[in-house]
Amino acid sequence: MQSSKSKLTVLDQITASDKVRRKIVDAASVLYAKKGFTATSIEEISEAAGVSLPVTYGYIKNKSEIMRMIMEDVLNTFQESLVSQIEGIDDPEEKLAIALILYIRVVDRHREKALLIYQKSSSLDKASKARVMQLEIEVLNIFKEIIQEGIDKGVFREVDVDLIAYDIMMMAHMWVLKRWHFKKRLTLDRYIDLQLVTVLRALKA
Predict the structure, then answer these.
(1) 158 — phi, psi (to 5°)?
(2) For helices 92-109 and 126-152, what crossing angle results, to 10°?
(3) What integer is the mean pLDDT of 21-39?
(4) pLDDT in tens, 169-189
(5) What is the mean pLDDT of the chain?
(6) Over 50: is that where the pLDDT of 2 sits?
(7) Could you tell me the domains of the chain?
(8) Rounded CA gap, 12 and 39, in Å?
(9) Would the pLDDT of 152 be above 90?
(10) What H or E segment, with its residue span, contains residue 199?
(11) Are 205 and 157 in contact (CB under 8 A)?
């Protein structure tokens, strides 16, 4: 990654916080995948991101915070996209289908980041680990609310809502973790179709 091509001015770094944050997250993701978490320094991330070191330290104090930012990036992308896509939809089955498809696609699009989170979550400091778990629960609650709405409306049968919601989340993670196996015979679209059928069969009243 050539930082000179995308070097931010000092004014950019002061005013464009979202842009700076994204540059740091993207640079860290690439370096972690290439060099590993331990071998990558914050100085290298700063240089690759084209962000001055003092500004970088304004966003992060240690590499655990970067891992937290990576997790936030993946989950925020999902949450923001979902809100816009299910707006005005009343059918819980349609909402759940959109949420499942979107979540698997978002995780696949950020699969290098997702793998990093799995590989390095145990090395996070206590505060960052707690934040990552909180974010995961926020996504879980989205699926739980949709499933519970379906039960209340008689569209879905009575189930362990928490368990089914986590099953759906793990379907996305499984595609990333076991993609080496599934890609031999399934495209992402086919994987999503099969998992959606499985979920709806389990839930339909």
Answers:
(1) -65, 125
(2) 150
(3) 83
(4) 999 999 999 999 999 999 999
(5) 85
(6) no
(7) 3-61 (1.10.10.60), 64-203 (1.10.357.10)
(8) 29
(9) yes
(10) helix 188-203
(11) yes
